[in-house]
Design brief:
Layout lengths: L5 H16 L3 H12 L9 H14 L3 E5 L5 H7 L7 E6 L2 H13 L6 E5 L2 H4 L11 E4 L6 H11 L5 E5 L15 H15 L3 E10 L2 E10 L1
Parallel strand pairs: 1-2, 1-4, 2-3, 4-5
Antiparallel strand pairs: 5-7, 6-7
Length: 222
């Protein structure tokens, strides 16, 4: 078996996307609108969006918390997984991003299922205490605050809540002890919390897709 190359893994990602995801106007337009608004192309890859969608369905998630809305692409995937009466609460720090996401989510037909809370996660998350617990939490915001977000995921979840953390591979940099950049150090703190905190059982997987070399962590609140 040959080692992967950028051309090879991108071709395989396109094959998986074309075969198992396909084109979807609402989702594709959300990505275009995000780009037109000048937001970075850091939304999840299509195969990962469908992974989140299926994971929410497998978990039977009725209430979903997303930390980091960006342009609403992953939010739409998650909302489409909900059963009747379900809800996605998504947190976005930038009001301009939230406005673009709101338009895309509404156009995709899931606006009534999504509550966008505007503000930094550290400020918004405490306001959710006392609400019905969440069944799935997707963390895709600033990496420096990953451990904080995981702590709140456990507080706002329940035994059996599924937690997914994006971008934990950082192109292999988390395994390089010489890399002390803020995002890498924040990611390490999050992974170390998952390893040591008795509230979680977790693992992580490397990913190679349209976004390059990265990884996701998947945890269960126990």
């Amino acid at each position: 078996m040959s080692d992967p190359t950028p051309d090879g893994w991108r071709a395989l990602d396109r094959y998986f996307t074309d075969t198992l995801v396909g084109a979807e106007p609402g989702l594709d337009q959300a990505v275009r609108d995000q780009a037109d608004a000048g937001m970075p192309a850091i939304e999840v890859a299509p195969v990962n969006g469908k992974f989140l969608h299926l994971l929410a369905r497998i978990a039977g998630a009725r209430r979903v918390l997303e930390i980091g809305t960006l342009g609403g692409y992953s939010t739409i995937w998650l909302a489409r997984a909900l059963p009747e009466g379900g809800r996605v609460v998504t947190i976005e720090a930038e009001p301009a991003n939230a406005a673009v996401a709101r338009a895309s989510i509404d156009r995709a037909g899931v606006g009534a299922l999504v509550d966008i809370r505007v503000g930094r996660g550290e400020h918004v998350l405490p306001t959710l205490a006392g609400e019905e617990p969440f069944d799935l939490v997707f963390i895709d915001a600033d990496k420096e605050s990953g451990a904080l977000y995981l702590d709140w995921a456990a507080r706002l979840g329940h035994p059996g809540t599924v937690v997914v953390v994006d971008n934990v591979g950082r192109a292999g940099r988390v395994a390089d002890p010489g890399d002390t950049s803020a995002q890498v150090e924040g990611t390490r703190r999050a992974l170390e919390l998952l390893a040591s905190d008795p509230r979680f059982e977790a693992t992580a997987l490397q990913t190679l897709d349209a976004k390059g070399w990265d990884g996701i962590a998947v945890a269960l609140v126990v």
